[in-house]
Amino acid sequence: MAATTNDPLAALATHALDFVRDGDVVGLGSGRAASAFVRALAARARAGLRIRGVPTSEETARLARELGIDLVGLEAEIELTVDGADEVDGRLNLIKGHGGALVRERIVAAASRRQVILVTSDKLVEILGSRGPLPVEIMPFAVPLCGRRLEDLDVKPTLRMQGERPFVTDNFNVIFDCAVGPIDDPVGLERAIRAIPGVIDTGLFLGTADTVVVSDGDAIRELRRSR
Question: Is 222 a catalytic site residue?
Answer without folding.
Answer: no
